[in-house]
Amino acid sequence: MPSLDRVKSMAKELRASLAVQDIHLAHSACLEIVARQLGHDNWNTLKATSDAKAELAISIIVEHGREEEAASFYQRAFGAIRGGVYLFEGAPISIDLRIGNVALQVGGANPRRELEPQRGGPFFPKACGAVSTVFILDVANAETALQRAIGAGATLRGELGVATDGRRGATVFDPFGHIWGLRDKASTKLRRAA
Question: Sheet containing 81-88: which strands, arranged edge to edge?
Answer without folding.
Answer: 57-62, 102-108, 91-99, 81-88
